[in-house]
Amino acid sequence: MASVTLPRPIYVVSDGTGDTAEKVVRAALHQFNGYLVHMQVFPNVTEREQLERLIRQAANERALVATTLVRPDMRNAALEFAQQHRVRIVELLGHLLTQMTLFLDTDPEGVPGRMHQADERYFERVEAVEFTVKADDGKEPRLMKQADILLLGVSRTSKTPLSVFLAHKGYKVSNVPIVLDRPLPDIVHEVDQNRVYALTIDPESLRHIRYQRMETMRMPGRTNYSDMDYILAELEWAEDQFRKNPAWPVIDVTRKAVEETAAIILKIMGERGLTYDSRESGQL
Question: Which of 2, 6, 71, 114: CA 20 to 30 A from 21?
Answer without folding.
Answer: 6
